[in-house]
Amino acid sequence: MSRPTYIRREILPPLSQSIDVAGKASTGIASNEDLNYIATWLDDRFEIPGTGIRFGLDALIGWIPGIGDALAAFASMFIVASAWKRGAARITVLRMMLNLTIENIFGAIPIIGDFAHVAWKANRRNYNLLIRDQQSVHRHKWQDWLFVIGACLLICLLFLGPVVLLVYLFRSHRLLF
Asked: How is the chain split into domains, by residue range?
């Protein structure tokens, strides 16, 4: 088994032996090792020599015009679906979905989006969230709620920003009213 990879400030304790790691053959749910393997390939399989910067297929697939980001988002949903099947807390699944939303909103921006995939690493974050959810007695923390509320506000601002800008431009050029 490979050594688990963690994102800064999201260090998790080692897996305890009491956690039931679901097997694929018996229940149809991917094991922790399988999900770690997926997160590794999507987010941190390759390294830029001499820099320590890691990236995965998620960033590379994004270079395919038109469908690259959609394919990467589809592959990323596997970890979220596994968390849902395992009965993870709703706040954990919501946070996982918001991680993917943030990465894919910024990922849709040409060039900048590729850096977003390398920097944010939503799949690794989601795997770490799933493991934390399995290990914790308290199924969610106040930081999870703070992240969800903040991410929702950010997404609303990102969608409202262009609308406000258009209204301002129309009014300043006397095209409206």
From this structure: 24-140
